[in-house]
């Protein structure tokens, strides 16, 4: 470790993402760093974009760390993939997590690689007991290698392979139990899947074990003319997702909320309007919970 690395490590606060955060993307970083809007409390990165890369990627990460709490969300170590985990990459990721005193790292409950080749998309897992065992094994190995809690994200899907032995929320619950891990609940993914596959999103959220939720994702999606909803992260957040977020926060309590935007970028001020609306929902639900927890005042 170099001296400057050592000094930075000592200075790094424990990861304390609070309030509403924004996914750090090149397209947004200049506006974010110049404006330093008070509404944005933290940022989330895909570590694959930064590990082993210098230049503008390294300086963007340094700048993000200097200004924000940084949370990591992986894209390549999906917990349902049949391939073994990438030990070399995970050593680098562990160093990155140590440097920012991370409390958790998240990956997707999906698969995306086979025989060393990666799919561009996250692929759905069969809702089977064998897939539960495989995912739980991988999550436990990730936790051992990374030395932080692992949160798994519920993924969007457009069909699931094989004969289902349980439904989606039962599958998520079984994996959480078997791996004894945390969950990053993507509210938009619950909404998208509920519309595409016909279930009640509020009932789904109510069955998520609240004590395991460490973070939420919110994003926009695209509705095709045939009604199929595509999880693009390239549209404004829809009203149904805002409402579902309110229900989710009332169930899980106050956890950090991340706005994901990955394309079709609007003016930065428009994105901040969405951040402000998410924060207004967060504070309203928190305040309502505090009021209802007050002891009854007797005359
Ligand atoms: Fe997400």
What secondary-structure arrangement, pairings included, does this model have?
Layout: H1 3-11, E1 20-23, H2 26-35, E2 42-45, H3 55-67, E3 69-73, H4 87-99, E4 104-109, E5 111-114, E6 117-123, H5 129-146, E7 149-154, H6 168-179, E8 182-186, H7 187-197, H8 201-206, E9 213-218, E10 222-223, E11 229-230, H9 239-252, E12 257-259, H10 268-293
Parallel strand pairs: 1-2, 1-12, 2-3, 3-4, 4-7, 7-8, 8-9, 9-12
Antiparallel strand pairs: 5-6, 10-11
The structure holds fe (ii) ion.
Describe, in short, the structure shown.
With 299 residues, this protein is an alpha/beta fold. The protein has helices at 3-11, 26-35, 55-67, 87-99, 129-146, 168-179, 187-197, 201-206, 239-252, 268-293; strands spanning 20-23, 42-45, 69-73, 104-109, 111-114, 117-123, 149-154, 182-186, 213-218, 222-223, 229-230, 257-259.
């Amino acid at each position: 470790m170099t001296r400057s690395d050592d000094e930075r490590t000592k200075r790094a606060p424990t990861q304390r993402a609070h309030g509403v955060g924004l996914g750090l993307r090149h397209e947004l970083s200049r506006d974010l760093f110049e404006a330093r809007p008070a509404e944005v409390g933290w940022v989330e990165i895909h570590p694959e974009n930064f590990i082993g890369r210098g230049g503008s990627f390294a300086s963007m990460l340094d700048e993000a760390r200097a200004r924000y709490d940084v949370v990591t969300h992986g894209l390549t170590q999906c917990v349902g993939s049949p391939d073994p985990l990438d030990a070399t990459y995970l050593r680098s990721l562990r160093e990155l997590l140590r440097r920012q005193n991370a409390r958790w790292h998240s990956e997707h409950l999906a698969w995306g690689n086979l025989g060393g080749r990666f799919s561009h998309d996250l692929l759905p897992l069969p809702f089977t007991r064998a897939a539960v065992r495989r995912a739980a094994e991988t999550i436990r190995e990730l936790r051992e290698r990374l030395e932080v809690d692992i949160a798994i994200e519920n993924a969007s899907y457009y069909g699931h392979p094989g004969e289902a032995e349980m439904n989606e929320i039962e599958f998520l619950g079984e994996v959480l139990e078997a791996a004894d891990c945390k969950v990053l609940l993507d509210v938009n993914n619950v909404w998208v899947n509920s519309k595409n596959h016909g279930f009640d999103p509020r009932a789904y959220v109510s069955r998520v074990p609240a004590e395991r939720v460490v973070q939420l994702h919110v994003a926009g999606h695209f509705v095709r003319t045939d009604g199929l909803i595509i999880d693009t992260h390239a549209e404004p957040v829809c009203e149904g997702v805002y409402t579902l977020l309110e229900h989710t926060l009332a169930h899980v309590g106050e956890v950090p909320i991340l706005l994901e935007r990955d394309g079709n970028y609007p003016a930065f001020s428009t994105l901040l309007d969405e951040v402000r609306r998410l924060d207004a929902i967060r504070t309203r639900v928190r305040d309502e919970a505090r009021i209802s927890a007050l002891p009854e005042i007797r005359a």
